[in-house]
Predict the structure.
Amino acid sequence: MSVSTRGLMRGTATPHPLERLLPGPFLDDDEEPSGRKRDSFARRFCAGLDGVLAPVPVTLDCLDAYFDPRLAPLDFLEWLAGWFGVTLDQNWSEPQRRALVRHAGELYRWQGTRRGIAEHIRLYAGVEPEVTDSGAGTWSAEAGGALPGSDACELHVTVTVSADSELDERRLDALVAAAKPAHVRHRVTVVRRAGKK
C-alpha cells in the first residue's frame, strides 16, 4: 500500500477555542506604541494553535466514516483493504473498490467456492455469472456406490454481457484465477449479446 498524507483542512474552525481556557489576565488587549489596541500575545498564540488543532476534533467527530468503506476517503479505503489483505486494482472504478472492501469478510468466508467466485464476478462485472465445476457430493445407503463428479478438477465460468460492454476479459480471467483454489484449472467464457442486458 502506498503511503499518503491527508490533505490540509484550511479554514476549519475549532469548536473549542483554546483562548476560552486562558485566565482573565491573559485576555487583556495589548496596547501598541501608536495607541492602537490588539489581541494579547496569549490570545494570538492560542489562535495559531487553534488553526493547527482544528482538524483533530473534526476528524474525531467523523471517525466512524473513516471505517465505513462506503464513506471513507479513497486513501483510507486502501488502508482498510489492507486490514483484510485485499489488494485493490486501481483499474476498478471507485464504487467497485468500495464494494470489494465492504464485502471482503464475506468473500473470505466463501473463498474458493462457486459462491465466492460468483460474488467476486458480480462485484467486478455487475452481472450474474454461471459457475460450474467438476466436483459433486452425494450419499448412498449402500456401500460401493459410484462417486459423483469427475477426477479432473475444473471450473468453468460463463458471463453474459451486452455487445457494447467494456468488460476486460483478461482482468476477468485474472480475477477468477485469484478467487479459485490454486490446483483447479479454469476456463472463462464471455458471451456478448446484442442489445442491453
